[in-house]
Design a protein that fits this description.
The protein has about 400 residues and is α/β, with parallel strands linked by helices. About 35% of the residues lie in helices and about 20% in strands. Bound molecules: nicotinamide-adenine-dinucleotide.
Length: about 400
């Protein structure tokens, strides 16, 4: 499960037993956030014990929980703690009790504050399909063969950050507007990151835009092509966003790395997540260019939301958060050894038939070979398999 590939230039920590203590921030957040972050912390602790490093955690309250406790979604001192860390692991924020769209203080302001305040301008979502979960996907199995893509979404520009006017006027004559600005610099930095990532994978980059209609898309396409000259070893193609949305379900295995602007990336990455069979499976990383002593600074979180319908009931699938923690190990801490072991342990648990409710097979014949587990049971099955690969022996579940 190494769909994300490697970031060129990420150093390996290389420390043995008695090695470093990494400083991580945990944001449990709302809803299922505490369930899945708790599971991922257990996995990281066991990985640290196996591979000889410690983790010093700082717990930060953000999102709805912070609104209740402090009246804001993220306090300045907590943003500063995030900035001082080696990386951040987040569950999810939000829930019905804070969902009033007219409220001036909203949980997702914590996410925007971290993206802007920490310079996290790119969101990376690897999408692959574990062979054992092919029956859980709504697509025909033959379409899923070889799916291994990485979506790179620009995260701090475009429509979500442009000037807007809320609806004004009398009913029947109301009008509102949003604007979609991009600068050359914003396009160039995310394009370079995507080209670098493509170099570490199959060297194919698809740039997604709407250049037949939007001026910002024409700037996007021009800048991406100018930067392509620095990467003659990467094959670049352009795709209009509407055609790309179709291709993602008709031939998902045809993609390697996709790069696109904020709104298109938001929509396409959710569409692609369906391929993996459950929202609960997929990880993400938000990164910029800042490096710490160990690697790239970043924020790691599953792609799902706070799932209030199943919160606190030992029902949430923790794999998306656990694989996010593996991405954190690889990219922010340079711990390829531990990242590989965590990903192998997740694969091992799935191969052994452990399934949370969201992954439960519809076909009774397939279900017979599976074991139903909750959040804690899935974490147990993964923890027990860490270190089974690479000549290090762990206890079997
Ligand atoms: P959601 O992802 O929370 O849930 C959608 C569906 O998927 C639900 O049926 C849920 O039970 C299921 N699901 C989600 N995660 C799962 C998991 N780990 N295991 C098993 N099933 C899982 O999306 P939503 O219902 O649209 O949003 C709920 C809240 O989350 C809202 O307040 C929304 O604003 C917030 N949200 C937060 C983030 C974030 O923190 N980054 C992202 C998306 C939504």
């Amino acid at each position: 499960m190494t769909a994300e590939g490697g970031l060129p230039g990420s150093p390996d920590a290389g420390a043995g037993a008695g090695g470093p203590a990494y400083r991580l921030v945990a944001i449990h957040g709302d809803g299922v956030g505490p369930d899945v972050v708790g599971a991922a912390k257990r996995v990281l602790a066991v990985a640290g014990a196996r591979f000889g490093f410690d983790i010093a955690w700082t717990d930060v309250v953000a999102g709805g929980a912070a609104i209740d406790a402090y009246g804001v979604a993220l306090r300045d001192e907590d943003l500063a703690a995030c900035a001082a860390s080696d990386a951040i692991l987040l569950g999810a924020v939000g829930g019905p009790q804070w969902d009033d769209p007219k409220a001036t203080v909203r949980p997702e302001q914590a996410l925007f504050a971290m993206r802007g305040g920490l310079g996290l301008f790119a969101n990376l979502r690897p999408v692959s399909v574990h062979p054992a979960l092919v029956p859980a996907s709504p697509l025909r199995p033959e379409l899923l063969d070889g799916v291994d893509m990485l979506i790179v979404r620009e995260l701090t520009g475009g429509l979500y950050f442009g000037a807007r006017t809320e609806a004004t006027g009398a009913p029947g004559a109301r009008a509102a507007s949003d604007t979609l600005p991009y600068t050359e610099g914003e396009v160039a930095r995310v394009a370079r990151l995507a080209f670098d990532l493509a170099r570490g994978r199959r060297r194919r980059l698809t740039s997604v835009d709407k250049a037949n209609v939007l001026a910002t898309s024409r700037l996007w396409r021009t800048v991406v092509h100018e930067i392509a000259a620095e990467y003659p070893d990467v094959a670049l193609d352009d795709r209009l966003v509407d055609a790309c949305a179709m291709q993602l379900v008709r031939a998902p295995a045809s993609f390697d790395v996709l790069v696109t602007e904020n709104l298109f990336g938001d929509i396409l990455s959710d569409e692609a997540s369906v391929l993996a069979g459950s929202l609960g499976m997929l990880p993400s990383a938000s990164v910029g260019t800042r490096r710490t002593a160990h690697g790239l600074h970043g924020l790691y979180e599953p792609i799902h939301g706070s799932a209030p319908d199943i919160a606190g009931r030992d029902l949430a699938n923790p794999i998306g958060t656990i694989v996010s923690a593996a991405m954190l190990l690889r990219w922010s801490l340079g711990r390829t050894d531990a990242a590989d072991a965590v990903e192998a342990a997740v694969s091992g648990a799935l191969d052994a038939g452990f399934r949370t409710a969201d992954l439960w097979p519809r076909d009774p014949a397939l279900a017979e070979a599976c074991t139903r587990v909750g959040t804690v049971g899935m974490a147990d099955a993964i923890v027990a398999r860490i270190g089974e690969t690479g000549g290090i022996t762990g206890a079997a579940a």
